Amino acid sequence: MIWHSEAKTEDAWAVLDKIGERERGKVEEVTLNLSESMRKIVRHCFPNAKRVIDRFHIQRLACDAGQEMRVRYRWEAIQEANDEMEEAKLTGKKYRPSSFENGDTRKKLLARSRYLQFKSPEKWTDTQKQKAAILFEQYPKLKAAYGLCHSLRMIFAKNTIKETARLSMPKWYNKVEEAGFHSFNIIAAMLYEHYDDILNFYNNRSSNAAAESFNSKIKLVRANLRGVSGKSFFLFRIAKLYA
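Given the sequence above, the corresponding structure tokens read:
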């Protein structure tokens, strides 16, 4: 079973409890995110189901940690460029920003390197490979953060046996500890807390990607309508569009 909701815990209980307890007891697996309210819903409504924390929520946290570091460096580069422009103005010189061999200035390099950090190296274009080489040479910590994101991605992508993944996770924790990045330490602690639910992914490799995709479509319709005044008619339109 795939379940995704932004409703309050009590509201979800009220709806799901309308289904007979015997029927709810047949549910064997529920995929969810890292929300504590979702765990409460599953424990209450589907007591026999195994909880599976979706791998994509975990990978997104790791990517966000890497992006946070890149953005911080970008602000520093912008400030550095502003200071150089101000100094050139005061000395009456023409400002010429320095650039790397691919033509990017430091702040452009950091701005245009966002998407390559979401991909595996074998999926990079030639341009992205060049950007990555320059970026990681200039910012070794970004290279280390990308390595942590990629190794976590590979644990989910390549490991097919639960016990193998159980051995791989502690090795990733060790890499995080060695890197010493605060954001990744928080993620590692969160993974440790939900360890068993994360490893349940390897039972059937279940994901709530379908629910997330459908939820995004609903949000897009709602945004295009600039809000919803009639709930019943909105649900009618959703049913006609996606049923």
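The chain has 13 helices and two strands. Try to locate this feature in the token string yourself.
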